[in-house]
């Protein structure tokens, strides 16, 4: 069945699972795939998730199918390695996810009423997740917030957990006051202390900035991606303007590039 399924263009998920098994075959598989383990593949899994997000943000719908396929392949890869160790397989992963979704949606799959707001459903969801954490002996409020998350995203999740039990500033004003305090402490560390203290104070400032994002209802990851895109777009414009003068950035200086930056910013703000 192996070869016929592998070359079947309509083989779907069984085909993908068979391909993964063949890639990991210790005698006939791919040397690179055989050498991998959970830790070595994890960074690729994170990268593929970001590429899915990037395609959605750019509304690149033609690319999204492929990016989702890449992300699915990461799940298949991890499941294959787990199967080889006798831990679980892909079907177990699917079953666990199905059980979780059914349990977390009693208003869809059970006898609870659907006649409630999205906000109430969110509260119910969090209650169910708290019960799941308790069943896993995760008793602390912050237990279960994944260590492998991007630091900015994890900061927001930690703060959201703490806020649920009342450990939060009342509003954005108090957070801004804290930002000013943390900024002063960072300046003091820069002037009087060493690299470790500077790094610690810088981390504190970033953590409070993430909290400000929460209070302003801003997704900090999305906001920073937007700032990255804007910087890239404007710096590219600087390079275009320098090229028109038969120059490159290495032939320019800060004063000139700063002037071209202001021009690029003004161009963006002109009405279409």
From TrEMBL:
<dbReference type="GO" id="GO:0006203">
    <property type="term" value="P:dGTP catabolic process"/>
</dbReference>
<dbReference type="Pfam" id="PF03819">
    <property type="entry name" value="MazG"/>
</dbReference>
<feature type="region of interest" description="Disordered">
    <location>
        <begin position="244"/>
        <end position="272"/>
    </location>
</feature>
<dbReference type="InterPro" id="IPR048011">
    <property type="entry name" value="NTP-PPase_MazG-like_C"/>
</dbReference>
<dbReference type="InterPro" id="IPR048015">
    <property type="entry name" value="NTP-PPase_MazG-like_N"/>
</dbReference>
<dbReference type="GO" id="GO:0046081">
    <property type="term" value="P:dUTP catabolic process"/>
</dbReference>
<dbReference type="GO" id="GO:0046061">
    <property type="term" value="P:dATP catabolic process"/>
</dbReference>
<dbReference type="GO" id="GO:0006950">
    <property type="term" value="P:response to stress"/>
</dbReference>
<feature type="domain" description="NTP pyrophosphohydrolase MazG-like">
    <location>
        <begin position="177"/>
        <end position="235"/>
    </location>
</feature>
<dbReference type="GO" id="GO:0047693">
    <property type="term" value="F:ATP diphosphatase activity"/>
</dbReference>
<dbReference type="GO" id="GO:0046076">
    <property type="term" value="P:dTTP catabolic process"/>
</dbReference>
<dbReference type="GO" id="GO:0046047">
    <property type="term" value="P:TTP catabolic process"/>
</dbReference>
<dbReference type="GO" id="GO:0046052">
    <property type="term" value="P:UTP catabolic process"/>
</dbReference>
<dbReference type="InterPro" id="IPR011551">
    <property type="entry name" value="NTP_PyrPHydrolase_MazG"/>
</dbReference>
<protein>
    <recommendedName>
        <fullName>Nucleoside triphosphate pyrophosphohydrolase</fullName>
        <ecNumber>3.6.1.8</ecNumber>
    </recommendedName>
</protein>
<dbReference type="InterPro" id="IPR004518">
    <property type="entry name" value="MazG-like_dom"/>
</dbReference>
<comment type="similarity">
    <text>Belongs to the nucleoside triphosphate pyrophosphohydrolase family.</text>
</comment>
<feature type="domain" description="NTP pyrophosphohydrolase MazG-like">
    <location>
        <begin position="36"/>
        <end position="109"/>
    </location>
</feature>
